[in-house]
Amino acid sequence: MNRALAWLSRAAVVALVLAIAFPLYFAVVSALTPEALLFEAPPLVPRDLVLDHFRALFEERAFWLPIRNSLLVAGATTAFCVALGSPCAYALARLDFRGKVPILGFVLAVSMFPQITIVSPLYLVLRELGLIDTYPGLILPYVTFAMPLTIWLLVGFFRQLPRELEEAAMVDGASRLRIFVEIILPLAAPGLVTTGILTFVYSWNEFLFALSFTTGPQRQTVPVAIALFRGQYQVPWGQILAATVLATAPVALVVLAFQRRIVRGLTSGAVKG
Question: DSSP label at 95?
Fold first, then answer.
């Protein structure tokens, strides 16, 4: 009975993995399929592989430009959120002050707030500041929603660290700032890496702000560039699928490589706290 249940569980896991991985596999196969065969049923095991769609991305559409924009915006957002969010999260996790619980609740509420409701006010503010179609005009809105995620995850990591280390350092005369820089940050390095990965993935995949606050291809990110692909007579599905593979595969590989840390980061503080 137990053996049958174990085999059934394994079969269910395999079926679930195949169901999740099949869309990405089909996108890769279709991206390598000649354009003439895309309007038929692309074979699951391709016979003739071509790189025409990938070549057209960079020769005809300069797809390196949205990739550069996404890397700059997502990288800057991640660096800013981790650098500023880590001391905020440490204060919320370790210091006792009035209003700590409402602040944590506010942070969680902001992360759940619908983006579409603030697009118009943000657009008016950015237009008055002259930040439409600029990198700062994308990074600042990204931070408004990525920062709560960063703080919430890091609070869980900091709560897991033993207080005895800080108390021993205080007995030796160390200040809170020195404890945070020399003790807490090195111990929380895995948590910082995990939080950085999740923040980067969130910023890389963001679509609404990037579409609303850019006016041309010079500042468009990868999701917006893919959504705006147009052909003269038909939709260039081959190029769209090739661009999707280029945008998805690196992020998927990073998530797979750090999946244990990511799961640990999402569940940190769930039991202890």
Answer: -
CB environment 146-170: b (16+ within 10 A), e (fewer) = bbbbbbbbbbbbbbbbeeeebeebe
| CATH 1.10.3720.10 residue ranges for the chain | 64-267
Q: What is the Cα–Cα distance from 259 to 39, expressed in whole angstroms? A: 36
What's the token pair of residue 163?
């207080």
pLDDT above 70 as % of the chain: 93
What gap in Å lies between CA 66 and CA 204, rounded to an integer?
Answer: 11
**64-267 CATH choice from 1.10.3720.10, 3.10.20.580, 2.130.10.150, 3.30.70.420:** 1.10.3720.10
Instruction: Give the whole-angstrom CA distance, residue 269 versus residue 246.
Output: 35
121 neighbors 84 (Cβ within 8 angstroms): no
Q: Model confidence over 50-106: pLDDT tens digits?
A: 888 899 888 888 899 999 999 999 999 999 999 999 999 998 888 888 888 888 888
**Cα-based distances in Å from 48 to 163, 246, 253:** 61, 20, 26
Residue 269's closest CA among 147, 77, 104? Answer: 104
Q: Report pTM.
A: 0.83
- What average pLDDT does the segment 34-56 reach? 78
